[in-house]
User: What shape does this take?
Amino acid sequence: MIPETSSGMNWKQTVDLLNILLRLYRLLWQVSPFHLLGNLFFRVLLALHPVVQLYITTALVNRVALVITEGHSIVGALNIILLQAGLFIASSGVRALDGMIMASMKTKTRFHIEEKMAVHSSRLPLVHFDRPDFHDSFHRAMASQNSLFLIDNSFAIIQSLLTFSGYFAVVAGFHWILAVGLLLFVTPSLIVNFRLGRQRFLQMVMQTPVARKAQYVFYLLTGRDAAKEVRLFDLSNYLLGAWRSLFWKNANEQLRLERKGLAMNWGVDAFGTLVGGALLTGLAWLGTKGRLTIGQYVALTEAFSSANNQLMIIANNLAIIHQNILFARELFAFFELPEEEQSAEQRRMPERITRGIEVRDLSFCYPNRAEPSIRDINLHIAPGQKIAIVGDNGAGKSTLAKCMLGLYTPTTGSVCIDGADIRNLERSDLRRKITAVFQDYVRYQMTVRENIGFGSLERMHDDAWLEVAAAKSGADEFIDRMPQRFDALLGPMFEGGRELSHGQWQKIAIGRAYFRDAEIVVLDEPTASMDPLTEAMVFENFLRMAEGKTAIIISHRLGICKAVDRIYVMKNGRIIEQGTHEELLGQKRGIPAHVRNAVEVV
Assistant: This one.
């Protein structure tokens, strides 16, 4: 959600921002009402302390003046000093308790927000993750952790308002003009800081795409994934140049805004100095009229100075609150992104598929793209049938697979299992009956047990099942050489982790798919980096494992076309040919050359 570009705020915008602040406080109340009330109570005590000290200072100065000028006993002054010291010690204790409670509340709130973001992200439609604007939104939502400062800022305002109200009442008791002078301190600072806060937020929104790209290029320079190619192709100078350009593009814009802000605040400070001088002159004038004692003069001078500080605290915190409320708006906007659609009609997945999978007039278009990636797809997979979907890279094979698995919601058409649209099936029930290995499988920097066991969490600690899955995928040959076997840590990210070759990681991913005893099995080009012998073994094991199950193999390099029941050939998002291995050999026209060669492999 991007705000309007105007630097001013109309009434509707003010109401919207107040609503966001109330939402944040409702969230705080939900996280920990005890901490919220405790902080409010302590801030009230801290707010009253300076006003009480003002009266004590007045009494102390007057008492000391009598001691010096008239020889009164010092005992009275000492009693006041002891009272003042006791109040300072008590105030320090209250401030420490307030800090401890505030730190605890911030920690709990940060945990609550991050947990909620993680849960919500896992429930968003998969297609969101193919959209650059979604990643920009998520980046801003993560930056909205700054909205936690709203807790401190808003409590600081409450405390300062109470303190200022006490000072204002004291000053107004002497002359109303002095009270008006106090108010003049805050107006310019409020206007300037509000405008700066809004401009900073708008700048952050506009700079998000460049900031993300700069982070990505920096990761290429410093991360492991690109390290080999950066050195081999001598890319460091080019990438450094790109990073410098992106970094300074944003940095220069930020510096221009900060220079503007410093100049405006200098003007505010100069104005405040003039107003302060006028107020001190007013106090001197009241002194000439005999309306002030020495203690009152000292106390009022302190009141002016302290009230000015309180007003500046209020102005600065209001500006920060305004800026951070805009960050919080991005957070709440992220939470409002619709999760995966849940049909009102939630049906159970059949225990055994009896009628098969039917794709009817299926089309899918990625967001922000004019042309659909797949269109007018119709096919039927009988129970236990094994099919292959082949075609060029970019032909739409993987997109079709994701629609058939229920990971993408079709733009038009439907995917049905035993006549039931998969959108009407219970999602968790549907996914328990499906397993898949994708091209971009995950390399979990965790143990072998977890890497394979994620296929079926309830059996993760069943070593017998792990042995079978590892053997079927061929991963057992290197797992058995590890001293800790299934408890060995994989990947270089954490100490003690063992890196695997690309082919070994693929076998782990295939083992994860085997580990789930699923009704439908999908292999989306999982053997692309394997040698022909290993590939043949994996497919042989796969077909053995898939006996009696519905199997879908997606590839542009398929050496086992003879072993599947039916082959579908895709091009430009459509199915252009289909048939058995023998039938397609007689229909070579229109089939991509490398796919035709794959079909002809004996």
